[in-house]
């Protein structure tokens, strides 16, 4: 990877030759209002789920440029390059080695997963700008927004990465709702099998003042009963395997997304944490028995939505974020006027994990599943997976020669709620207006809505996508949609305020770049994807004789990794401990 010093030499040579217009900062261009720009800021970002370009994207860009000019005196030209998540990662990879590129700022989700377009570069020595001093000088509003209510420094530590032997603040983290995941059910289908299951949907509908938590086994029986008794249902549950992890894997205390801790407290890849075998067996049984959709790993969310709207599924968890679930319920209700929908709270399970040993059997007697906590255990609710507080982040690649201008612009956006809401909702009075406050359970929520004369039109096609909300921070503004009806408002408030959430405790701590000498061992860790995980997701047997369950395959894999990758496993455990020690010292100094 080229270093910043190398790029400086290249730029100096270019300037001496007449400042080639393709290089960053030379072709300043003009703003949407026609002013000559002092500089251009170009942002690469991913398109959120359901986000589509509106007709007034340029009008919002112009409004931001004009307001920034009026308040700071800087004439900035703003350029937004929007990609789907996978396309963004590909485009960033293509542009990163180039010196004559406009790749100056990238925002994407923060994760150790390969799909993140920013984390892998934030870890690489010399690949991104260390923003610690820049934020102290130009980004006080950013720091304030990150640190507000940041218990445990989860968001702030997500900005810190180890480059070589040095730690630096190589990202700006956003702040998102930590409780946002839920499960959407066809309430009328639950009622249709009440005589079979004994489950009254009113007892578990979170819109009711008194609601309970279905147990894992009750939910399992419910899905099976719907599959067997409700006409037209093909697979009761639709959602990707990672969606399963967000709302069902946690019933066993499993964090399916992040590295976690093993039984001895060592930091390990997620598949080596306790009870992961039960989680795999759950998916395997559900896929094999037709409770969960077939070919879930390759199916699309569009197909899932079509199936749910058509009444072919009873449980929708395709990206089960509550705002998305409300949109899905609206669409399904419009297509099926007689249908009813409900959100349920996180599942309850037993503290005695042996109550789920039946999952290790080849077949499950679904009709006679045991009652949780019937033995030594007690009933517990662990909660749905916690959405990372710093779900999204932003990096400035090493080729950025004007990092202070990016910091200043984002800081300006965070400095005044009007600036942030212009970027998030569009032009006030044209694209949106303030709605009356909504009060739920004694708490008042600010709202936004479309202007009355355009409400119907904008519901069909929003005039603005929200693209310039470069980095979400709910501490700056977090309005509720005024057009949520009473039911939808209750859903949103209860999911984001009442639900228990679970995480492994490793949030915001990133692994450093793997030493080259450990690449081979690290590669072995991934062998489980095809040999173990793929079998669970497909509901099939594996192994040489095609007769082993995923739990059996996982046990063999775990033992094999102790022989194939001992140095890598020790490395990540040691690195994690060193990171914890570093943060303990860092934040103690700031206290």
Concise overview:
This protein is an alpha/beta fold and 591 residues long. It is built from 22 helices and 20 strands.
Please tell me about this protein's structure.
There is one protein chain. By secondary structure, the chain is of the alpha/beta class. The strands form seven sheets. A five-stranded mixed beta sheet has the order 2-1-3-16-6. Strands 8-11-7-12 form a four-stranded mixed beta sheet. Helix 5 crosses helix 6, helix 6 packs across helix 15 and helix 15 packs across helix 16. The longest helix is centred in the C-terminal third of the chain and has 25 residues. The radius of gyration is 25 Å and the shape is globular. The N terminus is likely disordered.
List the helices and strands and how they pair.
Layout: H1 4-16, E1 39-46, H2 57-72, E2 76-83, H3 85-95, E3 106-109, H4 119-123, H5 132-138, H6 140-147, H7 154-157, E4 160-163, E5 166-169, E6 172-173, E7 183-186, H8 187-192, H9 194-197, H10 216-229, E8 237-238, H11 241-247, E9 260-261, E10 267-268, H12 276-289, H13 301-309, E11 315-316, H14 322-335, E12 341-344, E13 349-350, E14 379-380, E15 384-385, E16 392-395, H15 403-415, H16 417-425, E17 433-440, E18 443-449, H17 455-460, E19 480-481, H18 486-497, E20 501-502, H19 519-525, H20 528-538, H21 550-564, H22 566-590
Parallel strand pairs: 1-2, 1-3, 8-11, 15-20, 18-19
Antiparallel strand pairs: 3-16, 4-5, 6-16, 7-11, 7-12, 9-10, 13-14, 17-18
Helix pairs in contact: 5-6, 6-15, 12-20, 12-21, 15-16, 20-21
């Amino acid at each position: 990877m080229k270093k910043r010093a190398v790029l400086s030499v290249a730029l100096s040579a270019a300037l001496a030759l007449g400042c080639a217009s393709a290089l960053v900062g030379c072709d300043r261009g003009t703003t949407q209002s026609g002013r000559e720009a002092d500089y251009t800021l170009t942002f690469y970002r991913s398109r959120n789920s359901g986000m589509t370009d509106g007709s007034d994207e340029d009008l919002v860009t112009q409004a931001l440029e004009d307001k920034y000019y009026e308040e700071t005196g800087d004439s900035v030209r703003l350029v937004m390059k929007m990609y789907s998540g996978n396309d963004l990662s590909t485009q960033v990879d293509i542009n990163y080695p180039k010196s004559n590129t406009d790749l100056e700022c990238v925002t994407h989700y923060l994760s150790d997963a390969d799909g993140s377009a920013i984390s892998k570069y934030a870890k690489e020595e010399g690949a991104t700008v260390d923003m610690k001093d820049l934020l102290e000088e130009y980004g006080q509003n950013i720091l304030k927004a990150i640190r507000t209510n940041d218990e445990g420094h989860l968001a702030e530590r997500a900005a810190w990465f180890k480059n070589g032997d040095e730690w630096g603040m190589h990202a700006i983290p956003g702040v998102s709702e930590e409780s946002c995941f839920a499960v959407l059910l066809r309430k009328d289908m639950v009622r249709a099998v009440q005589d079979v299951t004994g489950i009254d949907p009113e007892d578990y509908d979170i819109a009711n003042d008194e609601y309970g938590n279905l147990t894992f086994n009750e939910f399992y029986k419910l899905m099976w009963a719907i599959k067997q008794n409700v006409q037209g249902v093909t697979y009761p549950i639709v959602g990707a395997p990672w969606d399963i992890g967000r709302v069902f894997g946690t019933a066993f205390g499993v964090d399916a997304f992040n590295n976690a801790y093993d039984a001895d407290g060592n930091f390990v890849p997620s598949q080596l944490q306790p009870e992961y075998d039960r989680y795999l067996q759950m998916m395997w049984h559900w896929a094999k028995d037709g409770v969960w959709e077939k070919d879930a790993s390759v199916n699309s969310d569009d197909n899932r939505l079509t199936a749910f709207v058509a009444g072919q599924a009873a449980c929708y968890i395709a990206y089960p974020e509550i705002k998305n679930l409300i949109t899905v319920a609206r669409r399904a209700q419009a297509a099926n006027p007689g249908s009813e929908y409900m959100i349920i709270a996180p599942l309850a399970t037993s503290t005695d994990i042996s109550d789920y040993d039946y999952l290790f059997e080849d077949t499950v007697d679904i009709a006679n599943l045991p009652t949780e906590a019937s033995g030594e255990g007690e009933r517990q609710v662990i909660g749905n997976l916690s959405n990372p507080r710093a779900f999204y982040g932003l990096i400035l690649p090493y080729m950025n020669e004007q990092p202070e201008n990016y910091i200043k612009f984002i800081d300006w956006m965070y400095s005044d709620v009007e600036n942030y809401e212009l970027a998030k909702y569009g032009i006030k009075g044209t694209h949106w207006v303030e709605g009356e406050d909504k009060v739920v359970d004694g708490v008042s929520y600010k709202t936004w809505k479309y202007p009355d004369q355009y409400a119907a039109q904008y519901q069909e096609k929003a005039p603005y996508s929200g693209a310039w909300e470069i980095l979400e921070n709910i501490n700056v503004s977090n309005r509720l949609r005024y057009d949520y009806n009473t039911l939808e408002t209750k859903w949103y408030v209860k999911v984001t305020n009442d639900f228990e959430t679970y995480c492994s405790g490793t949030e915001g701590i990133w692994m450093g770049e793997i030493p080259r000498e450990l690449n081979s061992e690290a590669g072995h860790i991934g062998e489980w994807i095809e040999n173990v995980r793929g079998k669970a997701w497909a509901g099939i047997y594996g192994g040489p004789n095609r007769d082993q369950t995923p739990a059996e395959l996982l046990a063999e894999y775990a033992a094999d990794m102790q022989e194939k990758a001992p140095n890598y496993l020790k490395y990540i455990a040691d690195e994690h401990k060193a990171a914890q020690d570093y943060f303990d010292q860092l934040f103690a100094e700031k206290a």
